[in-house]
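Render this sequence as a predicted structure.
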Amino acid sequence: MIKLCAALLAFLPYMLLAQPVLEHPAAIPALGAYPIEARSYGVVPGIVTNGTGVLWDLSERPYTEIGTTKDSVLLPSATPYAADYPDATHAVRLVDQFGYYRVSDSAVDDIGYRLSAGSPSFIYSDPARILQFPSAVGDSWMDLAVNGSTTTTLVVTLLAEGELRLADTTILDAVLIRREYVGSSSSATSTTWFRRSDALRPLGNLLSGGAVIVRVPQESTTSIAVPGTGIGILVAPNPSPGIVHITLPSNAIATVEVLDATGRSVRMPQNMGRTSSLDLGDLQEGTYLLRVVQGGSVHVQRVLKLDR
């Protein structure tokens, strides 16, 4: 108990920093299955662990494929352990592990997990671990996780954010998060990549010694070999606070779709002629992709949405 009190005092300054920010509900993935390919890039010398707008460039680095699976975001009622987590609104399955979450308008509470069919449910009682990302690099926040008589202090720190570049995809909104668990008799630290737009599913881990594991989303819309190759597409103004005017390569009818930085559609595909306008005014600030299919060709053009 003395160790825990000392930890609380040591981490008290973290609580006085900027409040954590969760872009809700954009950071909660839709229900469904998400194909994932897990890759080991080995030890990456000089991997960046602090900074804003940093670039983790693994595009030329060889890797070993260590498995493929499907992450699933489910209704708790569709899982075998729903009775243990009556307050859950979302469940995430990573291979055979289930995590249960309570999602509200302002927060995501991690209320427990089940590692496998042969393990017991690990249930957090009040207060829950709040799963949120700090708003700026260097910011931290703290909460207590309680499981029966065991209390653990959790400190979450945003180490770095920027672009994760792989050979076959680029993830624009990656954040590197350190999570420190301090209990009365033990402690543990993990360093994990997430997408700021996905608070539930890890993107990968930075292991001790500099080894890198990346869990690569395999949605077809995220596999853009050369992002920003909108050959012949004119978009103006860019950056834009709202309305963008699009001129396409030919007069043929085209299908235009707007994707966010993770490759998820935020505008349903719509048909357009050679010149059209598109209103992005209700979207949050950030980088978006225009995916244009015209005459059998697919073009992708980046658009930066900035509020003014």
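Summary. Confidence is low (pLDDT under 50) at residues 1-22, 220-231. The chain has two domains: 2-218, 234-305.
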